[in-house]
Design goal:
This protein is mostly beta strands and 302 residues long. It is built from no helices and 31 strands. Helix content is 0%, strand content 61%. It is rod-shaped, with a radius of gyration of 40 Å.
Length: 302
């Protein structure tokens, strides 16, 4: 006798070898055990029949007989693959940033995967095989570039299959940063005029992410939409609009911007606008006669 060890379960009635591990059936426990060559249990499962007596290995599957059921069972002994060490670099960036993903695929049976796929946002990317062995672990990697519309938290995970069983990692998140826009060079021309005059408002919008802006100018208590004139969102886009003011008075004004991704900013005008009446009230007393000019009409009263 070269060696011996205790069977993992009482009543061992079947034994076979798959080229790496031993397999033994236990009638009393109604289980089939996978053992290493030192007798340590690697895995076990309930036998399909209640009285497992014989075991055989055909190079891929186990076979076992059961006299209680008068049956012979074919059993898959495939080990599920595992995915580990999922990583992404960098962990955050802005729109247009390229992220590199890596994951380790391991299969105890040495099976190559049918696929290893990255799911990020609404996209699916087939990952490419790197170095390593299937039994000890192979690194798979791929790149993904954040689209111009990507912002905030983006979910990702990896799925894989050895052709028999599918596995997946838990979802994780990376961050696509959004830079708030900037407003510069606020102006109005002219800065004064009569009722009914048109005033031209202008401001420069800039966004480091290159996002198109939605710009408004608030004059007094009224808000007006502004229009693009010339430039580039990243380096500076000029926005302009004309506003007619029909009532006399002093008006303050300010500009506000949104980049469509939650980023906002505001800037106030440096000067106030003075709007005057074209026909101011004039009262002249000549003796007992009062001469009044109202809206261009001379009124004489005694």
């Amino acid at each position: 006798m070269l060696s011996s060890f205790n069977a993992p379960g009482p009543g061992p009635l079947g034994l076979t070898y798959d080229g790496e591990h031993l397999w033994v059936s236990s009638q009393s426990a109604e289980k089939i055990y996978e053992l290493d060559m030192n007798g340590y249990v690697i895995s076990s499962f309930s036998s399909p029949g209640p009285v497992p007596q014989g075991l055989a290995f055909d190079g891929t599957n186990l076979w076992h007989s059961d006299p209680n059921k008068d049956s012979i069972y074919k059993i898959s002994i495939n080990h599920s693959p595992t995915l580990s060490n999922l990583s992404v670099s960098p962990k955050s960036g802005k729109a247009g940033t390229t992220f590199t993903f890596e994951v380790t695929y391991t299969d105890k049976d040495g099976d190559s995967p049918d696929f290893v796929k990255l799911h990020v946002g609404s996209e699916t990317i087939l990952m490419e095989q790197g170095g390593g062995t299937m039994i000890e672990g192979v690194i798979y990697r791929c790149d993904w570039t954040a689209s111009p519309s990507s912002r905030g938290q983006v979910s990702y995970n990896v799925t894989a299959s050895d052709g028999i069983e599918k596995v997946e990692t838990s979802p994780s998140n990376l961050t696509i940063q959004n830079h708030s826009p900037i407003l510069e060079n606020p102006s109005v021309s002219p800065t004064s005029g009569e009722e009914g005059s048109a005033f031209t408002f202008e401001v420069t919008y800039r966004d480091n992410d290159g996002d198109q802006g939605e710009i408004e100018v608030k004059v007094g208590e009224t808000t007006y939409q502004m229009n693009e004139v010339d430039g580039d969102y990243s380096t500076g886009m000029v926005y302009r609009t004309d506003v007619t003011l029909d009532k006399s008075g002093t008006y303050s004004y300010s500009f506000s911007a949104s980049d469509g991704h939650g980023g906002t900013c505001e800037i106030s005008g440096e000067k106030k606008i003075n709007v005057s009446s074209p026909f101011p009230l004039k009262l002249v007393l000549i003796g007992i006669i009062a001469i009044t000019v109202i809206a261009g009409v001379i009124v004489i009263a005694k």
